[in-house]
Amino acid sequence: MTAVESAGGRVTAVVLADGTRISAPVVVNAAGPWSGRLNELAGVGADFTVGVRSMRQEVAHVLAPEGYRGPAVADVDLGTYFRGEVGGGLLVGGTDPD
Ligand SMILES: Cc1cc2nc3c(=O)[nH]c(=O)nc-3n(C[C@H](O)[C@H](O)[C@H](O)COP(=O)(O)OP(=O)(O)OC[C@H]3O[C@@H](n4cnc5c(N)ncnc54)[C@H](O)[C@@H]3O)c2cc1C
């Protein structure tokens, strides 16, 4: 979505990157870390009091031990975790930002 159109204080449509225009009386912002940018497109950024910022965390994607089917495990005191990933991988990460 590259634009949000509105009239009379109401959303009327969204415009996609290829120029397609989709009429929409309601637009749900589910853009995760990009949600602030979408609020700006809709012209509601100034009214939105919850801030969003990017945060860098180190995560390694490694091969899981053969046959690994374990749960996600986290040590919140140390701020580390690992969990299985599709394709026999394992995500090993930290929860503290840089
Ligand atoms: C490495 C890693 C591991 C994780 N592991 C776990 C886990 O094990 N368990 C867990 O619960 N959570 C995990 N998370 C967190 C989880 O991924 C997020 O909490 C979740 O994806 C948030 O979902 P969301 O739908 O809010 O946002 P997102 O998944 O970020 O989705 C937002 C979507 O909006 C789209 N978008 C952005 N801007 C636009 C635009 N202008 N127009 C159209 N589309 C747009 C993006 O392309 C994206 O697809 C992990 C995150 C990371 C990075």
Q: Numbering strands along the chain, what is their spatial order in the largest sheet?
A: 4-7-6-5
- What is the count of β-strands? 7
Q: Unreliable segments (pLDDT under 50, ≥5 consecutive)?
A: none
How many angstroms separate the termini? 30 Å
Secondary-structure class: mainly beta
Q: Round the Cα radius of gyration to an integer and report it.
A: 20 Å
Task: Report the mean per-residue pLDDT as an integer.
Answer: 89
Helical residue percent band: under 10%
Bound molecules: flavin-adenine dinucleotide
What's the quick description here?
With 98 residues, the chain is mainly beta. The protein has one helix and seven strands, in the order βββαββββ.
Structure report:
The chain is mainly beta and 98 residues long. The protein folds into two domains: 3-47, no CATH class; 59-94, no CATH class. Helices cover 8% and strands 35% of the residues. It contains one helix and seven strands. It has a four-stranded antiparallel beta sheet, with no helix packed on it. Strand 6 (80-85) and strand 7 form a beta hairpin. It is elongated, with a radius of gyration of 20 Å. 3% of the residues are buried. The model has no long low-confidence stretch (mean pLDDT 89). Bound molecules: flavin-adenine dinucleotide (FAD). It comes from Saccharopolyspora spinosa. Pfam families: DAO.
Task: Tag the structure with descriptive keywords.
binds flavin-adenine dinucleotide; 98 residues; three-stranded antiparallel sheet; FAD dependent oxidoreductase; FAD/NAD-bd_sf; 2 domains
